[in-house]
Amino acid sequence: MDTLPWSPGLINNLVEILKTGILLTDNGGWIRFTNHLANSLLGYPRDYLNGKSIEALFLPEDTRVFLPNILKLTRDNTGFDGEVLLRKKDGTSIFVNCCTALYKDKSTGNELIIFALQDITSFKKMEKKQLESERFAGLGIITDQISHQIRNPITAIGGFALRLAKDQISPEEYTHYTKIIHSEAKRLEYIIDRLMEFAHVHPDRFSALTLTDVFKEVGKVYQPELERNSLRIKFPDSKTLPAKPLYGDLSLIMKAIRCIIQNSLEATANDGEVMVTGKIVKNQVLIQVKDQGEGVLPEHLPFIFDPFFTTKFNYLGLGLTMAKRIVQAHKGHIEVDSVPKEGTRVNLILPLDRRQEIRTKLLQKQPPAV
Known about the structure:
Low-confidence stretches: none
Helix content: 25-40%
Number of helices: 9
Number of strands: 12
Mean pLDDT: 82
CATH architecture of the largest domain: 2-Layer Sandwich
CATH topology of the largest domain: Heat Shock Protein 90
Shape: elongated
Radius of gyration: 29 Å
């Protein structure tokens, strides 16, 4: 069988008709070639990227670790295959699946790094819609509970409003009825606020922070009550907290801790104490809230994270559910250990960094930066 005539023209034509963006860089990461689809995906005119560093296409936070690791894996003939968020010429970002490979010219010894890019923006949108569908499906499951929670104050407001509409009521009755209507309206407002808060748990402000940052902000919330000695909460001394950073959404982590603390306060008598601690164990953050309260009955433990589950009168039962959602959004989990009449210990366990290690830790020795 005759061999195919692998002329440069044929190769160029093959590269151009591929439904894949192709970039070629030298071993130092300097771009030598881009095909039409790569230019189109990234919004650059033909040949504009030639001679530019591949760094120009990566987000600033990915040029310190992620990109050097991709280059190292490729130079080691392992290659990389995964999702990457790249910068377009207009400053916007695009999700692509990036595959890399090393090509070595046997005759010259020259090496080229091949970047193959597939646009996965539509896939990411579908993935987001799927997550939203699952979230709303979860909300649909608890529609009956939501209706029950809202129906009670509305019924009370309607009933007492009808009484006010009567021609003859005493001033005392008028005052009594309006107080009830106001109280039920505040209750309804509280329920709606909590439901909105529950439905909008979306970590989107991930950043580096420390346990000192977390407990400093949580402490501010309780500081007025602590100064009046109306609360017995013991927070860790900032001097004893590890300085090693974790990666998460500060406001949501605070909210999860507050939900657990509030639950402990409600279960603890006036002379009881709620103790909050924090430490780092290997690659995990352990935040513990321990109380000396009434504890949880064994038959109730499987349900404590279910929406609207509560054994307390006039409580909504969303705090622990929200805390669990927040922790799971950080790829962590919650452990609960409780003994009736003795107290409860809740552990919030979070990874130091929910990102993959290739994005956070340099792979051994790296060559000079491109």
